[in-house]
# Entry
Amino acid sequence: MPGMRVTLGQLKAFEAVARLGSFSGAGKELFITQPAVSKKVRQLQDEVGLALIEQVGKKLFLTDAGRLLLGVCTDWLDTWARFEQSIADLQGLKRGRLKIAVVTTSKYFMPRVLGPFCAKYPGIDVAMEVINRDRLLERLARNEDDLYVMGIPPDDIDIVSRPLIDNPLVVVAPASHPLAKRRRLRFSELADQMFLMREEGSGTRIAIERLFEEKNTPLKVKMELGSNEAIKQAVAGGLGLSIMSRHAINTLAGSEAIVELSVQGFPLKRHWYVVTPGGKQLSVVATTFLEFLDEHVKLLVADR
# Structure
């Protein structure tokens, strides 16, 4: 709008408040105080000449003008971030911010990649969110991060995905379980067993349910648990069998209390994937990380 004087700080404050639905949350993300965020948003509203945010009770809502500005603001901030990172790249500097969201099972190998990356590029601020599949898909739909790592990419939204690393699923049991002494089990023998599983909707749970359905074998779920650590402890305690990532077993403390069973059809071959929204223009930092990831994962696999 002609004559409008808007600052980058005001746009960043407004975008953060609109995205997070909180002035205090925006302040924490931007490393400024809540009053400073409120002041920037108020100054922006004064320049626009219309209310951008309304508060009803304790909740914040965007006005029509606010929704219109948010669309423009988000695109502009993304473009500006790419410009800053491109300039840094031309100057021979690797700096900026990288946001990654990963499913919980990938936390067993992602830190081993991020560590060397941060050491090589100390100027890059990396934020990694470890969340379940449902929350990751929500963030993906809102394009909140640069990259996403998951086991089963969604097929109902426009995305670009590529395999990252093998993620074999294996059947585990207490070391004292009668089946632990067997060398080769038929898949049908699993029909008599009770299983400890992750919550419905998790990538591992989806893969297992598909497999049992293909084999026309009932899957008896005794208990749902929210983490691999909890499942491992429950298996070790004799509450049932489970199917989990071999990566997770190898990195869980006390794994000697559980054993991998030799079952027909296992290990179930799966992969972790790197996913981005379709048509998304990756920043220089994200592209640099993907290139680093390709090379480092090869070394990680060889080491394992």
